[in-house]
Design brief:
It is built from 25 helices and 13 strands. 19% of the residues are buried. It is 48% helix and 13% strand. By secondary structure, it is of the alpha/beta class. The protein folds into four domains: 2-75, no CATH class; 76-233, no CATH class; 237-373 and 405-453, P-loop containing nucleotide triphosphate hydrolases (Rossmann fold, 3-Layer(aba) Sandwich), CATH 3.40.50.300; 468-584, no CATH class. It has a seven-stranded mixed beta sheet. A four-stranded antiparallel beta sheet has the order 1-6-5-4. Strands 2-3 form a two-stranded antiparallel ribbon.
Amino acid sequence: MAYNQSDPSSTRGSISQSDTAILEVLIPGYTFISRILLSYLHIDLAAYLQYFIALALFGVSMRYLSEYLTQFFETYLVSTAEMRLDDELFNYFMYWWSRQRHVKRTNRFLAGVRTNGYWSDGEDSDHEDSDGEDDEWEGGNGSMSAESFDDYWTKVINRDKYKRLRFTPAQGRHYFWYQGRLLMLDRRYEQTTARWVLNNEKLYLSCLGRDPSIIHKLLSDAQHKFVERDGSRTIIYRGQRCSSGATFSWSRCMSRPPRPLDTVILDDAQKQTFLADIEDYLEKGTAEWYAEHGIPYRRGYLLSGPPGTGKSSLCFAVAGKLGLKIYLLNLSSRSLDEDNLYSLFSELPRRCILLVEDVDTSEITHSRGKSIFPQSAASKAGNLPPKTSSPDETGKNTSKEKTEQTGITLSSLLNVLDGVAASEGRILVMTTNHPEKLDDALLRAGRVDMQIEFRLAISEDIEKLYQSIYSVSREERARPSPRRETGSKLRLQNGSADHGDESKGTENLDNGEAEENKPNGVQGRRQILQSRIASLAKDFASLVPSGEFSPAEIQGYLLKHKDHPERAIREVAAWVEDEKEKKRAKKEAETKAKESEKNGS
């Protein structure tokens, strides 16, 4: 009993009062705990204190040692590749990952129908499923199956209700095998103060060993898989920002099948000149020639003409023929400032087409007035120029508007197109309906090296349009038998069934099954069809006035009768009169509006 009432501190000769005070500071409640253990469990904490301290030191040292060994191992014995979200390689790898078998076996993944920009085409599922769609619609012998449109459309709608699921790795580490090597993928979302939040997501791909060749091979394989998915399709990018406050960048928006150059209704000489000039610009050794002569390696084109004459179509067709990517730029965007404009141009790759559509719709490209250098003939004669002829005076009149207006300026646009820091290797194509509105500085040589003027459709163009709509496609020529009972280009007899005289010219086409058994029966029918189409095209062109309608207007009319070529000829006269009346009424309305504005002013 006396032993229990004794002072515990007297039994601890190894620890002084000062040491106890220090332990009390380092370990709050040490004195109380030691007394409780000594009084009830007869355990002298001071006797084991050195072991606790040694254990704590060992734990701390092991922690730092493990971090050091891990850092040493990752630095000298592991190869790691970092991929950021704002780089296309991120999309390459994600697309490759989603196509691997081990994705279906993993228990941690990010599921969605569309994730960021990994499949940023908008045709990600439709493009892959389109091949099987035609097989269901067509029979094995090449003819149309008996399935009705309602049944077919019901299947399509039901299929479209269920979007394809996409699986990507979840945040954290994932281990997988590639060509017999164990690799690790680490997906992280790092916290940062960067304005572009999406850029915080990164991928780290690692392998054992200092040789990163297996990673290089995997990333190259991922790139090839991604590019092979597009095939010969034309890739289109758009300059935009992903979120509010983010910087502008080129985002892939879609990929489209290439358009044949012969489908663009334009004078053949102009088309060939345009194509030959671009091919000469892209030819091997041209860049060196420009550099030797001190000329910036840039090329610019202006495509002008009325709406619907095929300006953008020509650019798209040339891009498809040469395998170039198209980058779309909207100069009218109020959120696009000079810094973002320079950033977009600096990110343009070599050998691409920068397309600025309807450049005249942007106010910054409008003419500032007549140039005062050199002096005009009217001013030399003593006539005073109008007040609006001076760029300075024009700037004073619109200074208030310019201060309120945000976006880029004409000066920044001119500098980025042909300034000291302008990018090289790209092809600039601008389209406009009103070239007279553009400033002379924008049209000078070096910024615009060639101008192509598009015209309204003449008789020759109208014939080409008609033949392109109703002629046999290349796929149909390659098939063993033509498609009958369908709304295809081979069906001339439907249009002639309503007209007795015209049915005589196509009666040979109605005996398809009988002629298929004859030698060269199908080819003979197709030759008859082609000659028939050429004759009908001349008849159609004779009924449409030359130089009054755009190719787009005529094409729109023909699409309404895409299955009935003869009917299109019979009804074109009424369509021409209706269109003339609409244009006449529109012109009168515009004239009255201008007169009312003058009277009001």
